Amino acid sequence: MRRSTMFFVFTAINLVIMALLYIQSHISLSEHHILRKDIKEIVKTLHLTDMVLATDARYTRNPTQADLFSAFQDYPGSIEHFPTGSVIPPPDMDSMGKLIEIKTDGP
Amino acid sequence: MALEKHINILDYTLQSLLRRKFKNIGIIMVFTLVIFTVSSIIFLSYSLRQEAHLLLKNSPEIVVQKMRAGRHELISTWLMTEIRGIPGVSDVEPRYWGYYYDSGVKANYTILGIGASGLENNKVVSGRMPSPHEKNVAAIGRGIADVRVIKKDLGSILYLQAADNKWMNFNIVGIFESDSGIMTADLIVISKEDFKALVSMPDDTATDLAVHVSNEAEIPTVARKIKEQFPDSRPILRDEIIRTYDAVFGWRSGLIITLFMGALIAFIILAWDKATGLSAEEKQEIGILKAIGWETSDVLEMKFWEGLVISLTSFMCGIILAYIHIFFMGASLLAPALKGWSVIYPEFRLAPFIDFYQIAILMSLTVVPYIASTIIPSWKASITDPDIVMRG
Question: Cβ contacts (< 8 Å) between A6 and chain B: which residues?
């Protein structure tokens, strides 16, 4: 067999595998879709707000509920000591600006 | 005839690559590893982000925390009546939750004090949930069931040490199966009274409040009114919750930077090595081909095929291996970065969401520059006089 034919066969096999994986992803997504309905029900009933990605530190278990200075919670200059703290950053603070602009009746 | 010429050049290219097989197999392996690493990160982060979007849409519209001296504190439940009075609020419910460190297995659990009904026919819950006022019963995540020294399952007893040093025992009546692990692996669900007894929580207080708003458009207004009325509160919007996970799994996130840098540097070194010039042997080969009558365009076509064979082979193998790694093997190589020191973590059974846009970008950032870095130095050599090229 010519080397070019072998290359085309190899490429075709790879493309077929990729096509099969794509079909598999669709089948798997439809199965997940059925399960996801049940998981959504749990999230709604139990009022859950976070995914279980890392359970070693409070602020990586529930990043959205963490204190605003989560990584420095012990004192302002303390360094991050949980490995997951470098992978899961502190919560998004974009809305803080909005919240701080609130007018009060104070002096 | 024209096609035959191209196939002949491809044949020659493959023969030429095989002549330097150790070098080229080495390049293919490094290139495949780079594509594998980057596409694994793309698959993992995109899939987790989609999952977060779909699941956390069901979180409470607003969670109201009380802050004291910048720290989260227990909130008075009397605030519920006042928040209910804000136009747009349909309901307010207290949330009772906290953490429990189990020194026996050195694991953190998340404890929820809630009596939940309505999960009887849930496929990912074996058994049932504790009802609102039922004492000494619990539903636990599969992660906890597996990690305990003595494995816990339906019907066994779970002992937890209360704040007053007494041991409380809970009959396990429900297990959240591992299909829901991404949300429930470390959960212990008990009734509100049991939770208050376990952590000695004063009456009329809760961990925070879940505020339900019927009209999505009114959520920011309601949050602003809560903040105005109770300046020591921190309303967390559902949008912020979802955005936090976007940030965790986004391109700028720690996860991506931590894992991506090594792969990126490896690829830059590889491309740099290719782009900075040809070896003496390669130059000599181009000189000989020119001397025996090859056109410059033929030499460039040969180099194009060379770049394409190496980069396309690596790209396809890398993508296939990454898919298998993330969706069949539960991201076994990347999961340790997320687990850190966690004792309880979910098995990643991810839904295979594929972002073709990111795959296309990855292809254009790897395959195209590699072909270009193969062709450009060869073009320089092939337009030079064969005699000079062969002499080096």
Answer: 14
> Using an 8 Å Cβ cutoff, are B263 and B37 in contact?
yes
State the count of interchain CB pairs (< 8 A) between A and B: 236
- Residue A74 falls inside a structural domain: yes
pLDDT of residue B200: 93
Which pTM does this prediction carry? Answer: 0.85
Number of domains in chain A: 2
Write down the residue that tokens 């949008």 correspond to. Answer: B239
Return the higher-pLDDT residue of B278 and B309: B309
Q: Which residue ranges make up each domain of chain B? A: 2-55+249-391, 61-238
Segment A75-104, tens digit of pLDDT: 656 667 777 777 776 666 555 445 545 455
Contact indicator for B315, B363 with CB cutoff of 8 Å: yes
**Please, which residues 86-105 of chain B have a Cβ atom closer than 8 Å to chain A?**
93, 95, 99
Residue B275 has pLDDT above 80, yes or no: no
CA distances from B173 to A43, A45, B42, B113, B262 (A): 19, 17, 39, 15, 47
What is the Cα A71 distance to its own chain's centre? 18
Residue B75 CA to residue B63 CA, distance in Å, equals 11
The shortest CB-CB distance from A49 to any of B228, B241, B327 is to B241
ipTM score of complex: 0.83
The alpha-carbon gap from A59 to the nearest alpha carbon of chain B, in Å, equals: 11
Q: What residues make up the domain containing A16?
A: 1-47
Chain A: residue whose CA lies nearest to B116: A45
Tell me the one-letter amino acid at B54.
L
CA distance B58 to B102: 30
d(CA B125, CA A39): 9
Do A5 and A40 fall into the same domain?
yes
Strands (E), B283-389: none
